[in-house]
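I'd like us to work through together how a protein chain folds, taking it slowly. To get us started, please write out a protein record for me. Go ahead whenever you are ready, and we will take it from there:
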Amino acid sequence: MVDVTPPVTATLEDATRDFEAHRKLLFSMAYNMLGSVADVEDVLQETWLAWSATERAAVDNPRAYLVRIAVNTALARLKRARRDREAYRGLWLPDPVADDSDHTIRSETASYAMMVVLEALTPLERAVFVLQEAFGYSHPEIADILGRTHESVRQLAHRAKVHIRDRRGYYRTDPATQRVATERFLDAALGGDLNALLAVLAPDVAMWTDGGGRKGTARRVVTGRDRILRLISSGFRTLAELSARIVDLNGAPAAIVRRDGAEFAALILDLDPDGTVRTIYTVVNPDKLHGLTPTTYAQS
């Protein structure tokens, strides 16, 4: 009797080919849900292990199967991450992702400001919102992925949309306007020009700083133009030692700030419809900057 069982190497090759064909999609989904590149890489590893152990002859649609594994793995990890982030030293902000990296994100919902707002949703609300708004899944499809009823998914989607509308809305800045505002802010801050800073900041501007416990970084959100002007002006001498380049992070112009030849901070601005800065996001936690490689700087 002839043994027609496929060689193990062929099976693994097929599994690898299918997984790699969908890796960027899975990364994008998990990143939209988690906001942490390290957590996303763990999700992809767990997804691969589950997929490589699956009898693929019984899988009609590898993409759908992989998405179900990755989304539910990310959902479980998000629930644990929420508890960990409550103990985080200071403000927690998502990892910025460079658009020229090996990863692909859906910028419509992975804009940095939207990623921050998504942190306020429950894990299930976030999963439903991401699947529907970023990836175009219908309520029945999402219900199948998450193992929920159609009605519960509809309610989750409604709650998520109401929360986002109340917190921020769906306004998204034109990239050219975003770049100009970022350049004006950098020129004013690094050049020590208070009048120029006053012109670019909205009256109710807020500053978020994720330092990962680094000494000297604000542990709470700083609000109000006067307070932020005083904070920035107090550091003008230090700011003069920095350099910055405009790059694309999370699908929009932002800045990488460098000191002594190394990445010091990622700076992302969120704008009001009139073009003034309503939120300043500054990531100085070095663990969140290592993925922003020097190749990124060629964009400006």
